[in-house]
Amino acid sequence: MTMFYISAAVALVASVLAISRSNAVHALLYTIVSLLSVALIFFILGAPFAAALEVVIYAGAIMVLFVFVVMMISSGQGAARQERQWMNFRLWAGPSVLSGVLLLELLYSMALTPVQGMAKSVVDSKQVGVALLGPYALGVELASLLLTAGLVGAYHLGKREAKEGADE
Amino acid sequence: MTSMYDHGLVLAAALFAIGLAGVLGRRNIIFILLSIEIMLNAAGLAFVSAGSRWGQPDGQIMFIFILVMAAAEVSIGLALVLLLFHRTKTVDSDAANSMKG
Question: Do B48 and A15 touch (CB under 8 A)?
């Protein structure tokens, strides 16, 4: 119960800091901490599969996309100086402290109870999978269609940009 | 014990409000996309906490669909940001207020 509120506080603080930073990389770090704390909340609420997806896809894949774009935009002269600036400890101390709180919570929960979170009932990945490919099979097909559309759209936008760059 | 789920919904509302403030307050497009991510995440949190309240997998399934939508949206959105950046050399959203067809 207390762990839920600690995670919620970390999520709120990290989100407020994320939208109020002026540097994009700092904001990304705080957003990742916010997503990790929401993942821990999922775990506490008894949804371990959603927690794993949150870490792997949200905090992993989607945020890596953001990092790539920020790197592409801020490359050029001054990038090396900025890189040195980012190595400064003071800049990543905040995200480190917040994610350290989350890590302590996770270790504490793993030491306390073997697998289970603190919820009354845990909805594990088997139940989710059975429901996903049973009554929600049409939704899965639509999701795959949406992802294909996203792939084609991103490719199209990138390709048109490259062609116009060649024209210039 | 039950109130934890209620407070999950409250937290989801607070995170959504923070994301909305970010969307309305920032002018940098990357920050706007980031705030949209926070809002989508808050919506997913609401679904998961409501689903856990009843011990049903439906909330997590809606979360998976939100995840898919967020992934597609981010890939298209960031491609558009790169396009805008290569045209206008800035990521200020006010730079995109004039279009020529």
Answer: no
